[in-house]
Amino acid sequence: MELSRHRLVRELCSLALPAADYVVTGSGPLLAHGLRTVERDLDIVARGDAWKAALRLGEPAVPLSGYGCLVPLFGGDIEVFDRWLPGSPGPDAMIEAAEWVEGIPFTPLGDVLAWKERLGRPKDREDIRLIRRHLEMSEK
């Protein structure tokens, strides 16, 4: 499936956020690389004008991590954060390191793998396996 046809990606694109001011993170990069589906909860880290736009579109809240601020959009299907998880690089570093897939900035899979391994959450085990396998195959 073309990434641009995915419902969450269409919702994201409808926001018209300045692409230089955000990055898709969380499980979104797995979707971008075709490693798994994501039906809900597309995570975005934003700065500058993209963050200001998110604040105009929704009410800010405290994320489950208690770290930073998030704006849930589309009934929570898209969550725009002003920073990612504790121990992660800041928004500027994340956005500058983005890899582009179909014109959308995504966190590189190696970075996703690093924070998923660091967190060690049971819900991330399958993602870790999928990313490792994909990265190993890419190196061959």
3D structure, described in words:
The chain is of the alpha+beta class and 140 residues long. The chain has a single domain, classed as Beta Polymerase, domain 2, CATH 3.30.460. Helices cover 39% and strands 16% of the residues. The protein is built from six helices and six strands; from the N terminus they run H-E-H-E-H-E-E-H-E-E-H-H. A four-stranded mixed beta sheet has the order 1-2-4-3. A two-stranded antiparallel sheet has the order 5-6. Strand 3 and strand 4 form a beta hairpin. The longest helix is centred in the last third of the chain and has 15 residues. It is globular, with a radius of gyration of 14 Å. The protein starts with 6 loop residues before the first helix and ends with a helix. The mean pLDDT is 93.
Query: Span between N and C termini?
Result: 25 Å
How many domains? The number is 1
Write down the CATH topology: Beta Polymerase, domain 2
The outline comes out as globular
Mean pLDDT: 93
Class by SSE composition: alpha+beta
Number of helices: 6
Radius of gyration: 14 Å
**Beta strand count:** 6
Helix and strand topology:
Layout: H1 7-14, E1 22-25, H2 28-32, E2 42-46, H3 48-57, E3 70-73, E4 78-81, H4 91-96, E5 99-101, E6 104-106, H5 109-119, H6 125-139
Parallel strand pairs: 2-4
Antiparallel strand pairs: 1-2, 3-4, 5-6
